[in-house]
Amino acid sequence: MFKCKTSAEVGGMGHSVKRKEDARFLHGKGNYVDDVKLPGMLTMVMVRSPYAYAKIKSINKEKALAIPGVLAVITGEDLAQYNLHWMPTLLSDTQMVLPTDTVMHQAQEVCAVIATDRYIAVDGAEAVDVQYEPMDPIVDPFKALDKDAPLLRPDKEDQKDNQIYHWERGDRAKTDEVIANADVVVKERIHLPRIHVASIETCGCVASYDKDTEKLVVYLTTQAPHAIRTVVALVAGHVGLSEEKIRIISPDIGGGFGGKVPVYPAYVVAIAATFLIGKPVKWIEDRSENLVNGFARDYHMDCELAATKDGKIQAFKVSTLADHGYTDSSANPSKYPTGMFSICTGSYDYEHAFAELDAVYTNKAPGGVAYRCSFRVTEAVHAIERMVDKLAAKIGKDPALLRLENFIKKEQFPYSSPLGWSYDSGDYEATLKKAMDMLGYDDYKKEQAQKRKEGKLMGIGISTFTEVVGAGPSKDFDILGIAMFDSAEIRVHPTGKALARFGTKSQGQGHETTYAQILAEELGIPYTDIEIDEGDTDTAPYGLGTYASRSTPTAGAAAAIAARKLRDKGKKIAAYLLEVSEEDIEWEVGKYFVKGAPEKSKTIQEVVFAAYTNIPPGMEPGFEATHYYDPPNLTFPNGAYICVVEVEKETGAIDVKRFVAIDDCGNIINPMIVEGQVHGGLTQGIAPAMYEGIEYDDEGNVLNGTFMDYLVPTAVESPHWETGHTITPSPHHPLGAKGVAESPTVGAPPAIANAIIDALAPLGIEHLDIPITPAKVWEAIQAHS
Ligand code: CDP
Question: Which residue intervals define the domain Aldehyde oxidase/xanthine dehydrogenase a/b hammerhead in the entry (predicted)?
Fold first, then answer.
């Protein structure tokens, strides 16, 4: 009845099959949160503060409420009646839902206007009369710890100054000693600027409470629907919202990049509004609201790298000041307030390291989101990769050679890093050599020498990064106490077609295709016969969501193991159907057969049919399995990126001539999707390297809150990305796969920065902070000529 197919024919692992989700996206049939329209739905618009720091003297709602169609104006005082005016952040700090007395950053939500349509709501928001008493804001994080700095968070009982916490890892004394006695020490203060994830779809929700069923349904652009459900239950449980009555539906998402993990104040207000008014309430953030709220990065890192005179790295020290805005709403695992920053020792083999960090409050928007990065890995990689290049320049050694001489060798894995990680696998030398070959590194070095003789500015920059992705393990990683694992549930229907559900949530990464490919490989069912479903907490198994490249390492593994449970069940059924013992049954993709007699076989479809129609005596009917996967370790992808630039002396214009990216993410599920991930990630790497940065004036005003001023690179600004890969399987992942999505965003900025600084080196320029814009380059050239 059924014909068996090969791995390639079913679209299994390693095949570049077309993305199943693309038909709906290309035909404009994606279903985003703003597409959700419910009967009687109202619209909410936020009134926002023009000041960075001000007392609220009064809020007068009268004029707004007089506008026909405006139904309510909700203030912090209104929420305070239900104790809903503050909420916890993911890192156990507290954040205002709506203020009752003070605003802490420009564009903070002050109150919400609910109306019958958006036009009326906007008019209503303009008609609300808020009287403020402005105060002097703290904009510069270095001034936040001054003795006479105003205390920004007097609401927190134990808060005596503006320091949020101090964190450190490693042996300070030993590291200092090695640095003090080293032949060569290079030092630099490196700033990774405040940037925005700037996803094309802004944040938004539709909250709908049904008084009869007492059920709250929230359509939400969230990367972590289950975690949000639990947070809503914890925050709003006291007003009668218990977890079984809360359903979070995350529809299609137009880019998340970490910015759609947190709970934003407007979500809570929309939920409160539907609860009070009894009608669905939609809130969709506009572009400027999106650009002035939330942020990623903003680390000021004082780095020191010590080495012998011939370039053997001996120690690395980094002391960081982190600007968190007025609350710490970083989306980090709770035991890792600085995320995975301690990966900062990089791809190199040395013993001594020390990292410390002080986080401070300022009058800026909170956020600290993991922008396409495992919680602060971008910062860590930028620090070490810039410093390695600085060392190479100082001792006059080729930066590629310096790296090759210092790499952790492939036989040293699993490798215990100086700050406590156990790197699972890698072959850094092979990855860099492949990148050098693909580029033609030696030829470019010769060309550069020639160009320098002609007075031209050409630079070659390398970044050889080690990544850390796939949180859990749950013993170490949790968010608000919820253990970080992930899940897969597979239902194979009697006709051999399947539905599989996951605790993760794709935002464009292609999970509907790649998860189906994993199941196709494991079960031999064509990937086109497998529906993938994510994002609805009423149907999907509990999981911690998709961010920080964790889907493949966690839910991907869960899919493989759940499928293997089914394969084991199938083996018993096949033995029964073929009238042999289970030990005599062997498996190849899509087919069980009798050892030594391959013509006696049953396809997976025949076996599944029997699970519903001809069940072996005593066996539980059906063909379904679930697995919750708690990874034993993270996965450690790596990459070698090389960038070639030319800089025009007269204007500071930077031309990226070549960019070669070799990634190693272990075994690959879909090479085409991985290539797409790398292309997108590299573009989000050139973004902070050359274009993006949120700027403030001394009053705390955001200076670039629109896409006119905040340049997000497009295909026009992007060079031709040249990609390739090496494969070092993860030894602990059931498929040997590692995550990949964030690697390019993490690895690209230092390669580009290193290339530009290398181009400028003949002028005596040793460092520039990103974004390295033509204006910044021009100024540096003027200062050095
Ligand atoms: O968590 P997120 O989906 O953002 O990141 P990921 O696990 O790195 O996966 C990104 C996309 O690349 C997914 O569609 C994966 O299935 C795919 N991928 C792959 O095909 N092979 C790998 N080794 C890693 C990821």
Answer: 27-136
Handedness of CA 600, 604, 609, 614 (dihedral sign): positive
Is the Cβ–Cβ distance between 370 and 409 less than 8 Å? no
Residue 473: asked if its preceding bond is cis (omega within 30°), the reply is: yes
Helix (H, G, I), strand (E, B) or coil at 29: coil
d(CA 747, CA 752): 9
Whether the CB-CB separation of 598 and 660 falls below 8 Å is answered with: no
The dihedral formed by the CA atoms of 493, 498, 501 and 504, expressed in degrees to the nearest 10: 170
CA distance 440 to 444: 6
Q: Which residue of 374, 507, 509 sits with most ligand 1 atoms within 8 Å of its CB, as the best mutation to test the pocket?
A: 509
3-state secondary structure of 282: strand
Do residues 671 and 699 make contact, with C-beta atoms less than 8 angstroms apart?
no
Task: Judge contact between 388 and 399, C-beta under 8 A.
Answer: yes
Token pair recorded at residue 758: 């290398």
425 CB under 6 A from ligand 1?
no
In the predicted structure, residue 1 carries a pLDDT above the cut 80: no
Q: Tell me the pLDDT tens digit for each residue of 127-150.
A: 999 999 999 999 999 999 999 999
Task: Decide if 372 is catalytic.
Answer: yes
| C-alpha 740 to ligand 1 mean position (Å) | 6
What is the ipTM score, two decimals?
0.99
Beta-sheet strands, E only, within 517-596: 530-534, 585-588, 591-594
Select from 422, 428, 432, 431 the least CA-distant residue to 410: 428
319: left (phi over 0), alpha (psi -120 to 50) or beta: beta
| Domains in the chain, CATH or no CATH each | 7-29+486-629 (3.30.365.10), 33-135+203-285 (3.90.1170.50), 296-471+633-783 (3.30.365.10)
Classify the phi-psi angles of 376: left when phi > 0, otherwise alpha if psi is within -120 to 50, otherwise beta. Answer: left
Ligand 1 geometric centre to CA of 509 (Å): 7
8 A C-beta contact, residue 507 and residue 225: no
Q: How far lies 660's CA from each of 403, 461, 656, 663, in Å?
A: 17, 11, 11, 10
Predicted confidence (pLDDT) per residue in 464-512, tens digit: 999 999 999 999 999 888 999 999 999 999 999 999 999 999 999 999 9
In the block, which residue shows the tokens 């030894």? 731
Alpha-carbon dihedral 681, 687, 689, 690, rounded to 10 degrees? 140
Structure tokens at 778: 């021009």
Atom of ligand 1 nearest to the CA of 667: 23
